[in-house]
């Protein structure tokens, strides 16, 4: 039973492989999302970064399915004030 955690070269050592060989291989993640198997490379040699990449990918899929958009950031007061002044001066 797969738990959805990142897996990589440290968990699948091959006979005759040294530690240096395992360190150069990227981690992969695998999980099931809406009945579809998602298996992708995390494109990193770090297990911690691979776990974060998996969380981000799952979050992106969930947001895309639910059509939830991220709220727009509020501009800084200085940039909003200068934009407002430009619109008032042009009229």
Characterise this structure.
The chain has one domain. 43% of the residues lie in helices and 13% in strands. The protein is built from three helices and two strands. Strands 1-2 form a two-stranded antiparallel ribbon.
> How many β-strand stretches?
2
Whole-number radius of gyration? 22 Å
Mean pLDDT: 81
> How would a crystallographer describe the biggest sheet?
2 strands, antiparallel
Our count of helices gives: 3
Order of H and E elements: HEEHH
Number of spatially distinct domains: 1
- Class by helix and strand content? alpha+beta
Beta-strand percent range: 5-15%
List low-confidence stretches. none
Shape: elongated
Roughly how many Å apart are the termini?
A: 67 Å
Strands side by side in the biggest sheet: 1-2
Percent helix: 40-55%
Offer a concise description of the structure.
With 91 residues, the chain is α+β, with helices and mostly antiparallel strands. The protein is 43% helix and 13% strand.
């Amino acid at each position: 039973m797969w738990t959805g955690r990142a897996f990589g070269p440290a968990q699948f050592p091959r006979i005759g492989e040294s530690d240096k060989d395992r360190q150069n291989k990227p981690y992969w993640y695998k999980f099931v999302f809406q009945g579809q198997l998602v298996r992708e490379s995390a494109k990193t040699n770090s297990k911690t970064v691979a776990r974060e990449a998996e969380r981000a990918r799952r979050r992106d899929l969930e947001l895309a399915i639910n059509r939830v958009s991220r709220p727009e950031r509020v501009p800084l007061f200085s940039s909003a004030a200068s934009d407002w002044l430009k619109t008032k001066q042009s009229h």
